């Protein structure tokens, strides 16, 4: 017998002096506390069930949050492949077409009953009765595959297929399959069956770069899906097994055989009768004419990302008008062909002073190489970079008539040299720029500070990395031709920076206008820059001179690896680059040679100016003929006389003679010696008076 402790009873305690809980009973004889009776078992299970339910609820909420992020329902409404976009020139002529053939989504309620039934018969007969997963269909597929000894039939429902094509990749892993099942349940919970079917039919691939039922109906039968016959619907449904292999444009027999399997499955599923099946005739194709518009050009590849952003994620084919000028593009291509570059490459960028790109040549042949040397290749700009050096000098208060010492100088251990070893002593900035003196440019950069030179380049839109040392004054850091041409365009535009663009400028918001605001040069600085650029055309760039007022600068990099001319006249700013993709030297190449002549050839035609006859008149002159011409114009002879290395180079700019002490003979390596090739040290003396 036990009694409950009253308030007046002595305080019982557990061993060790710990007070017993209030709810405990105690033995009246021994005074020992007695534990209360154990709760009923149902209470224990109720408590466990409560905590389990709470845990399941948390997991469920986490799963819902994960699905909301990784599988937003709106994603199944978007095209799964970039839709076709046609780029038009400024004159409205198609210049390139990119992307898949996609049309507007379908609505199941507006389709003939046999259209969705054809897809259900071959893909998922119990689509309208399951909850995203079909155990019977899965078991049937497993049994069929086991009997066939390999994969012959899939068990995925239409809902699972939508989950895969719209939200997942095609990896065959257990994790991906589990996510597919979760997303299928998610779609079934939030969408109706007709909505799931519509999104499925609007997304699946039908071969021939065609996505979605509407696009496939028009492409193969030249009719809308609302008017498809049973035979046509069966053929389209049959393509889903292997769309690329079964596309009727390449495998009509295979497509017809597969369509027969679909119609037989429709009979088996009760969608059509046997009599209807026997009366069917194979669907006849009515292929819509395929456009012969190019799939790509140098300009199209460059402008496409911006064009896609403008078009947006839509199903319908889009047409986007660009800034490309048909007439100027053809002229640029012809000038590149007539340029006499031989096996070397050429790039041309033509823009308006506001940055509107009207022509672009990224190489001799897009078919042979899609690499765009105008926008992707970062090559040393040589003396064309001196624009920024002299701008920094003008900003510091100097003028074209200021004097600069054009005599040999050494900075630490580096001695910049002029082309041909010719120095003029004290000369004006105008003469130094016109003759492209390397020593003068380095002295100016040292005098005003290399940071101000880099700042000038950044202000004019150069974004490529620039070396923080004096050699950058001679153009040793790689930039793209597009960057360089945009920088020169700012002088023609009278404000900087100029942003190159391939789409017509639209209305910008006040925020964009504030952020992208340009800065003016100031009238004195602008006039001085133009004075320098005009002097250069009368100096190293005389081969580019036009009847119109011409402004520009030549550039040649070490060992004649690159030749450039960038300048403007009238309302066009043009940059020309010539060089080899492997960066190997081109004997005799100078910016004032072939690049300047290509520039003049193009600009004289573009501005309707009379020009002297071009040596190579045929657009399709062979590389061999051009190489022979270059070999005749560019000759290099080297030899050793009396302990001196003597070199004679004959090019379009004249004759150059160099003499240097011959290096001491190097003993041949002995067996077992480790031979390390000498480092390649840039020679910065090849760019100067006469070189450009």
UniProtKB/TrEMBL annotation:
Domain of life: Bacteria
GO MF term list: penicillin binding; peptidoglycan glycosyltransferase activity; serine-type D-Ala-D-Ala carboxypeptidase activity
A single GO BP: proteolysis
Matches recorded under InterPro entries: Beta-lactam/transpept-like, Glyco_trans_51, Glycosyltr_51/Transpeptidase, Lysozyme-like_dom_sf, PBP_transglycosylase, PCN-bd_Tpept
Residue intervals passing through the bilayer: 51-69
Positions of region (Disordered): 654-692
All copies of domain Glycosyl transferase family, residue ranges: 104-266
Compositional bias ranges of the Pro residues kind: 662-681
EC number(s) from the headed UniProt entry: 2.4.1.-, 3.4.-.-
Family from the record: In the C-terminal section; belongs to the transpeptidase family.
The protein's name: Penicillin-binding protein 1A
């Amino acid at each position: 017998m036990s009694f409950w402790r009253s308030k007046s009873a002595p305080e019982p305690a557990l061993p060790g002096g710990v007070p017993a809980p209030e709810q405990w009973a105690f033995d009246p004889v021994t005074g020992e506390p007695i534990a209360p009776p154990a709760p009923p078992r149902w209470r224990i299970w109720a408590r466990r069930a409560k905590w389990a339910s709470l845990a399941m609820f948390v997991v469920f909420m986490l799963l819902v949050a994960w699905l909301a992020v990784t599988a937003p329902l709106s994603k199944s409404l978007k095209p799964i492949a970039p839709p076709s976009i046609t780029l038009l020139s400024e004159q409205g002529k198609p210049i390139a077409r990119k992307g898949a053939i996609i049309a507007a989504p379908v609505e199941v309620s507006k389709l003939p009953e046999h259209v969705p039934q054809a897809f259900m018969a071959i893909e998922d007969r119990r689509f309208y009765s399951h909850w995203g997963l079909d155990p019977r269909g899965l078991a049937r597929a497993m049994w069929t595959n086991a009997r066939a000894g390999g994969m012959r039939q899939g068990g995925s429902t239409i809902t699972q297929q939508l989950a895969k094509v719209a939200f997942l990749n095609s990896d065959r892993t257990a994790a991906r399959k589990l996510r597919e099942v979760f997303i299928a349940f998610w779609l079934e919970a939030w969408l109706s069956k007709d909505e799931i079917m519509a999104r499925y039919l609007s997304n699946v691939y039908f071969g021939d770069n065609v996505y979605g039922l509407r696009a496939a109906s028009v492409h193969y039968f030249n009719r809308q899906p609302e008017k498809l016959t049973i035979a046509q619907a069966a053929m389209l449904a049959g393509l889903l097994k292997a769309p690329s292999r079964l596309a009727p444009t390449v495998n009509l027999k295979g497509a017809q055989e597969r369509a027969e399997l679909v119609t037989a499955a429709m009979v088996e599923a009760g969608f059509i009768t046997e009599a209807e099946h026997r009366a069917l005739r194979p669907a006849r194709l009515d292929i819509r004419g395929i456009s012969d518009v190019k799939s790509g050009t140098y300009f199209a590849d460059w402008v496409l990302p911006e064009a896609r952003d403008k078009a947006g994620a839509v199903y319908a084919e889009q047409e986007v008008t660009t800034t490309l000028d048909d007439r100027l593009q053809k002229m640029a291509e012809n000038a590149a062909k007539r340029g006499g570059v031989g096996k070397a490459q050429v790039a041309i960028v033509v823009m308006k002073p506001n940055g509107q790109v009207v022509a672009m040549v990224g190489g001799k042949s897009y078919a042979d190489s899609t690499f765009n040397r105008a926008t992707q290749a970062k090559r040393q700009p040589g003396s064309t970079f001196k624009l920024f050096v002299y701008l920094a000098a003008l900003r510091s208060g100097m003028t074209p008539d200021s004097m600069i010492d054009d005599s040999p100088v050494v900075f630490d251990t580096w001695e910049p040299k002029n082309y041909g070893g010719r120095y003029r002593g004290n000369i004006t900035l105008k003469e130094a720029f016109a003759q492209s003196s390397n020593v003068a440019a380095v002295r100016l950069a040292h005098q005003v500070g290399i940071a101000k030179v880099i700042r000038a380049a950044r202000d004019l839109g150069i974004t490529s990395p620039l070396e923080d040392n004096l050699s950058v004054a001679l153009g040793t850091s790689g930039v793209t031709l597009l960057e360089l041409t945009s920088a020169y365009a700012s002088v023609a535009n009278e404000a900087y920076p100029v942003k190159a663009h391939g789409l017509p400028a639209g209305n910008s918001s006040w925020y964009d206008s504030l952020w992208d605001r340009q800065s003016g040069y100031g009238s004195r600085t602008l006039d001085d820059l133009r004075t320098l650029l005009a002097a250069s055309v009368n100096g190293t760039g005389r081969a580019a001179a036009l009847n119109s007022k011409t402004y520009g600068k030549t550039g040649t990099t070490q060992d004649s690896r690159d030749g450039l001319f960038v300048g403007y006249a009238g309302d066009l700013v043009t940059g020309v680059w010539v060089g080899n993709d492997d960066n190997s030297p081109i004997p005799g190449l100078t910016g004032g040679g072939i690049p300047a002549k290509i520039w003049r050839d193009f600009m004289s035609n573009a501005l309707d100016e009379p020009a002297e006859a071009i040596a190579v008149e045929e657009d399709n002159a062979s590389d061999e003929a051009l190489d022979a011409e270059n070999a005749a114009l560019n000759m290099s002879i080297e030899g050793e006389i009396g302990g001196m290395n003597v070199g004679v180079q004959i090019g379009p700019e004249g004759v150059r003679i160099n003499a240097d002490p011959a290096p001491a003979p190097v003993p041949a390596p002995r067996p077992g010696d480790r031979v390390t090739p000498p480092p390649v040290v840039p020679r910065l003396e090849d760019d100067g008076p006469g070189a450009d």
